[in-house]
Recover the amino acids of this structure.
């Protein structure tokens, strides 16, 4: 199963005809058509002892929704363990490893839709 997320996945709502219908509905409710519509952020399930590598998450927030994950940023002496309900704001433009200490569920909230936030093999 390919769990790779690419930047277009974060923009998927803007590429589909339903996005146009949402924008029209927003106009009827008095909302500006130029305001971006909320785009669902994919949830990533990680099996125990599996590791995801993200090339650059500068400015993104890694959220642990279930389980426990160990997060390390390349070149950073900090190692962070996140439990369910905790998150980490990535403050440097380096590769990030997210390792599941137990079966886990994470989500990366990108700083912008154009960010390269797709995980790759560790």
């Amino acid at each position: 199963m390919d769990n790779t997320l690419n930047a277009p996945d974060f923009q998927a709502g803007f590429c589909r005809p339903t996005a146009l219908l949402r924008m029209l509905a927003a106009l009827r409710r008095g909302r500006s058509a130029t305001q971006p519509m909320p785009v669902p952020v994919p949830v990533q399930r990680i099996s125990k002892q599996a590791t995801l590598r993200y090339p650059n998450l500068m400015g993104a927030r890694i959220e642990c929704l279930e389980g426990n994950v160990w997060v390390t940023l390349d070149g950073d002496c900090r190692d962070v363990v996140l439990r369910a309900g905790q998150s980490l704001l990535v403050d440097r433009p380096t590769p990030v490893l997210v390792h599941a200490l137990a079966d886990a569920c994470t989500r990366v909230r990108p700083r912008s839709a154009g960010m390269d936030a797709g995980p790759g093999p560790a």
